[in-house]
Design brief:
Order of helices and strands: HHHHHEEEEEEH
Strand content: 15-25%
Largest sheet: 3 strands, antiparallel
Radius of gyration: 45 Å
Number of strands: 6
Oligomer: single chain
CATH architecture of one domain: Roll
Shape: elongated
Number of helices: 6
CATH superfamily of one domain: Head domain of nucleotide exchange factor GrpE
Distance between the termini: 130 Å
């Protein structure tokens, strides 16, 4: 059997001569274990990131759902509560219609009737409060259009202008929202704030 390498380099057979064989450098292949470890680490990091995002979205959804359920429970009776306020107003009007002198001198039957109306009003307000509806009276407070509705102005120099001095109709809150603003009378013409010492000095210098 003829060796092909000897045949190619045979000087007696120039027709068969060829370029000398040059060996190529040997390149070490990448370590398959190292490449796999890096790929696994990348996949694990991506999977962990996706898992954390999913958990965050689920937690946000849970909180939002709980908030919506609480709001529905609290504010779902808004329309019904407004209707019940008419009953409370009528009870209050009935009590206001009886003069104080008449109450003091009333016979036992009329006193029992008045006390029954008062008891009914208190029971109604307590029931409303148990369901998140609270009555508020802003007398003496600074007028706030978010909670009160001004019906008229009352000349009163004894208090600062814009103070609630009369309440025509009490207001009601349901949770953190205004169910019905209070109808009020607001003071007008109160004393202005005293000038500061710096203003007095500048005026005297002039």
């Amino acid at each position: 059997m003829t060796d092909p390498d000897l045949h190619q380099n045979d000087p007696e057979n120039p027709a068969q001569a060829s370029e000398p064989v040059v060996s190529k450098p040997y390149i070490m292949p990448d370590d398959p274990e190292t490449g796999s470890a890096e790929a696994y680490a990348k996949e694990a990091a991506e999977a962990r990131d996706k898992m954390l995002r999913t958990l965050a979205e689920m937690e946000n959804l849970r909180k939002r759902t709980a908030r919506e359920v609480a709001d529905a429970r609290m504010y779902g009776i808004t329309g019904f509560a407004r209707d019940v306020l008419d009953i409370a107003d009528n009870l209050q009007r009935a009590l206001d219609a009886v003069p104080a002198e008449t109450r003091d001198n009333a016979d036992p039957g009329l006193k029992s009737l008045i006390e029954g109306v008062e008891l009914t009003e208190r029971s109604l307000l307590n029931t409303l409060e148990k369901n998140g509806v609270k009555k508020f009276d802003p007398t003496g407070q600074k007028f706030d259009p978010n909670f009160q509705q001004a019906m008229y102005e009352v000349p009163d120099a004894s208090v600062p202008s814009g103070t609630v001095v009369q309440v025509v109709q009490a207001g009601f809150m349901i949770g953190e929202r205004v169910l019905r603003p209070a109808l009020v009378g607001v003071s007008k013409g109160g004393a202005k704030a005293a000038p500061s010492a710096s203003n007095d000095q500048s005026n005297s210098a002039a």
